[in-house]
Amino acid sequence: MGLYDRDYAHDQSSSFEYSTRSESHIVSFVKETYKLFAASMLAGAAGAYAGIPFAATVAANYWFIAIPWMLFGMFGLQMVKNKPGINMIALFGFTFASGVIITPLLSHILSFANGASLIANAFLMTAALFGALSFFAIKTTKDFSSYGKPLMIAFMIILGFSLVNIFLMQSPVLYLIIQAAFMLVISIMVIYDTQNIMRGAYETPMDGAVGLYLDFFNMFVTLLQLFGLFGGSDE
């Protein structure tokens, strides 16, 4: 799920505000963003832990849970992000729910003899790749700030092909192509989000934290699906 609005840096009505933020304000903004990101990761892990016993129920009602979650991520968080207290409840409720939503996948992976190691390896690889991309975003001289809309368009195209493949074609080859394309888009999103956070270019730290969380979440889920496809062992 990568539809959270990341285009604040290109809002013409607020560009002057971002350009005049002091260096100390940006440093404070970045620290707060990464604190919320870390807390969101903990909330997501708690949701996955709490939801595992109910994985079958979640799977049976997946779209009734996932669609409201996605809509809340697109619109609900935006509506409350400037309301102190409520915004934090919404943020951690959203990230907790994200952990619950992936419990059917986690349960499936855990059914393999090497399931726990697959999950651990997927998480470690996600963390390593996420860290490397963040480091690149900070050190590179290339400006990715104009990539917001193209990334969203690419995401929607990939989502469209994914739905067609799920409900109509069910092609393993197309599935792999879709996952590879999605990993590429998410990787660029990490760079895009990181650069904008370092500039203080989002309206609130919560905006940046949600963007980073969804990047990590989507990357982890994609790797987990691939690990489950190629590395699962029933013995």
How would you portray this structure in words?
With 235 residues, the protein is an all-alpha fold. It has one domain (15-231). 78% of the residues lie in helices and 0% in strands. It has 10 helices and no strands. The longest helix has 29 residues, at 23-51. The two termini are 33 Å apart. The model is unreliable at 8-17 (pLDDT under 50).
Strand content: under 5%
Structural class: mainly alpha
Rg over CA atoms: 18 Å
Q: How much helix is in the residues?
A: over 70%
Number of helices: 10
How would a textbook summarize the main sheet? none
Order of helices and strands: HHHHHHHHHH
Tally of domains: 1
Low-confidence stretches: 8-17
How is this structure best summarized?
With 235 residues, this protein is an all-alpha fold.
List the SSEs and their pairings.
Layout: H1 15-19, H2 23-51, H3 55-60, H4 62-80, H5 86-101, H6 103-110, H7 115-139, H8 148-169, H9 172-198, H10 205-231
